[in-house]
Every structure is written in structure tokens, then in C-alpha cells.
Design goal:
Elements: H1 3-22, E1 35-39, H2 47-59, E2 67-71, H3 79-88, H4 106-118, E3 122-124, E4 127-128, E5 137-138, E6 145-147, E7 157-161, H5 172-188, H6 201-211, H7 215-218
Parallel strand pairs: 1-7, 2-7
Antiparallel strand pairs: 3-6, 4-5
């Protein structure tokens, strides 16, 4: 790791440790929930690598913090459910493949996070992006990571990373204004580099409405 990357990692770790101290964890009493940390960023920015490095550093001396890493990607719909979603909205290109809000199993995500919070035995799903020639699918439950047998009681920190984690939906008027401005730019310039103006408003509205349900993960 370069010196610059190492400095950024140490900055992240120091910030997290300070937040743990402020929240009185660890040591806030047996049975108290672990500390939850959410990390977002655009796709391909290196969230997974950063989160893995943070977890490794926190597990080491002098911190010795038992850390579990989750990805919003692991909560994608099963292949069959994604196909059903795409078929129901066949005219919406935004949901023909995994990625956008509406393509995750939010009930499963909330269930897993609630189990961490209550320190119950649980299983963490895994998603295989290579399945079905890259369309992806959730792996069989028998292969999910199991946390239990007392292990769940020692977890200090749960890190959840995802590109749209913590995003909030826009109201319809704001969304419409942004879309109209994007369309105007698209029609008036050969240099338009955005994507918003290329989509129908109704398609954007569907994804924006689905995003509201994601509040359940972070609230």
C-alpha cells in the first residue's frame, strides 16, 4: 500500500475508533448492539478494498475489534426474482439488470441487520456475480456464512458498504426539475455527458420511489 493510501486508511481507522469511544462501545455492557458503520461511494471507486483494509486494521493490535463486513451487493434479488422484476417493467431499462434501487431484497437485509443488533445467530448471504453468464444469483443458503455459537456476542463493529447506501429519494417536483434540466441540456448540446436526460421520467420515478424503501436499512 502506498504512503498516501496508508495515510487515508489510518485517517478512516482513527475516525471509526473515535466514534466507537463516543458511543461507549466496546464495553457498554453485555448484550448491547454492535456499532454499525455505513460506507457509500460510486460503483468502481474501491469501496470493497477500502472496507476490507479497514476491517483488517481494526482487528489488529492495538484495537482488537471484532469486525464483520457486509456488502449491499450480497442482498441482490435472486436471479429468478430479478427476471420477474425486469418482466414486470420491461420498458424500464434501469431495472433490466441488478444495480439500481428495487433490485435488492430489503426484507433479507433488514432481517440480517436486526439479528446483528439483537446478537442472534444468523447467516450472511453471498451473491455470485458470475452466475448465469454474469447476470448473477444468490448462492445456496447452505453456503452462507454462519455467525453463532456465542460468536455473535463478541462482534464490536458491523460495516455495510453499498453504492447507494444512505441515499434519500427526491420529492417528485425536485426529480422532475432535475430531469427537465437534463433533457434540456441533452437537446441543446452535443457534449452532454450525463445519463439522466436519456431516460423517461416515469422510469426514473420508479427507481426514486423504490429508494424510499431503503431508508429501512439505515434508520
Amino acid at each position: 500500500m502506498s504512503n498516501a493510501s496508508n495515510d487515508k486508511l489510518q485517517t478512516c481507522v482513527s475516525f471509526i475508533v473515535e466514534q466507537l469511544k463516543l458511543s461507549h462501545r466496546p464495553g457498554s455492557g453485555e448484550g448491547s448492539p454492535p456499532f454499525f458503520l455505513g460506507i457509500n461511494g460510486v460503483q468502481g471507486i474501491g469501496k470493497t478494498s477500502l472496507v476490507s483494509a479497514i476491517a483488517d486494521r481494526l482487528e489488529e493490535a492495538p484495537h482488537h475489534l471484532h469486525t464483520v463486513v457486509l456488502s449491499l451487493d450480497d442482498f441482490y434479488l435472486t436471479h429468478q426474482d430479478q427476471l420477474k422484476l425486469a418482466a414486470r417493467h420491461r420498458d424500464n431499462p434501469l431495472v433490466q439488470h441488478r444495480g439500481q434501487p428495487s433490485t435488492h431484497d430489503l426484507d433479507l437485509a433488514v432481517s440480517v441487520l436486526s439479528s446483528f443488533r439483537a446478537r442472534r445467530d444468523l447467516q450472511i448471504p453471498t451473491y455470485d456475480k458470475s452466475a448465469f453468464n454474469g447476470q448473477g444469483d444468490r448462492v445456496q443458503k447452505a453456503k452462507w456464512l454462519k455467525i453463532g455459537g456465542g460468536q455473535e456476542k463478541s462482534i464490536d463493529l458491523v460495516i455495510l458498504e453499498g453504492w447507494c447506501l444512505g441515499f434519500r429519494a427526491l420529492d417528485d417536483a425536485h426529480l422532475a426539475a432535475c430531469w427537465k434540466q437534463a433533457v434540456k441540456l441533452l437537446q441543446g448540446s452535443h457534449d452532454y455527458r450525463g445519463r439522466l436526460g436519456h431516460h423517461r421520467f416515469v422510469d426514473l420515478q420508479f427507481v426514486n420511489e423504490a429508494l424510499k424503501e431503503y431508508d429501512a436499512i439505515t434508520e
